[in-house]
Amino acid sequence: MDQVNNLVSVDQFSNQDMMALLKQAQAFQNGQTVELTRPVYAMNLFFENSTRTHTSFEMAERRLGLQPLAFNAQSSSMTKGETLLDTLKTVQAIGVDLAVIRHPQNAYYDPLVAANLTLSLINAGDGSGQHPSQSLLDMLTIYQEFGHFAGLKVAIVGDIDHSRVARSNMRLLTQLGATVYFNGPKEWLTEDFTAYGEYRDLDDLVEDVDVMMLLRVQHERLAQANNVSFDAQAYHERYGLTVERAKRMPAHAIIMHPAPVNRGVELADSLVEAPQSRIFQQMTNGVYVRMAMITQLLAHRGLLAHAPLEV
Ligand code: CP
Q: Structure pTM?
């Protein structure tokens, strides 16, 4: 990868960059460590709720020896009108080296990147835009399973329009040579998706895919957008991975979901822990890909004492 100070979009990753990040993540999973040249401080600024991404970024930072500083959006001076850019300039002046940000606004990071800050930025999810670290952990999970991407058939099913995971994964998967298919309510499939994959009937798809990737129905964004009522049972029957549909998946096929899961909606409750589910493996992989992303930025800033070491 070109030397970068910010990782904000999957569009930054060539196939070679991605494979290097996955290899580094796998090495961390196998016990590789790093040594820092000086104390390094991180701040995780989350303006949307999160369990997985927030916790696994903090875990990744701690495992690499960084020191995470607490940030609470509700008690920060942003409630007094301070902008995000001024907040970052402030914490940079105080000594923060890395800011990990989740924000409801699509591409919130554009003016921050344009400001050429010295601290490094990682996008932990922007509105319905991108979720690069989720996408990398999904790629690692698929790679661990199949050892390649070319020729794989991946179904992305559910609340596609609201999904930054779908937007990131359709780009990386097609770039890597996989074929992407979509299913879900057609009103949630906007034009920007059709360049990346075909809409197919769910009952055909389940018999043909290598990866069945379900997406959470984002009730909070749906309610905001149209104030529509939602029938969970009807959705499950029409667009969900039911037990009956899962039985028709090829024996080698896997189930993925970025989580949080609405059990009994996107997929049957019992399938979350089924043998073909990789949902918890995705969460574990999240720590290692985030360690790899942070390491990339630390290397750029000369904060690694030497290349990552085998234990
Ligand atoms: N998958 C994901 O981004 O989960 P969180 O919202 O809990 O971080």
A: 0.95
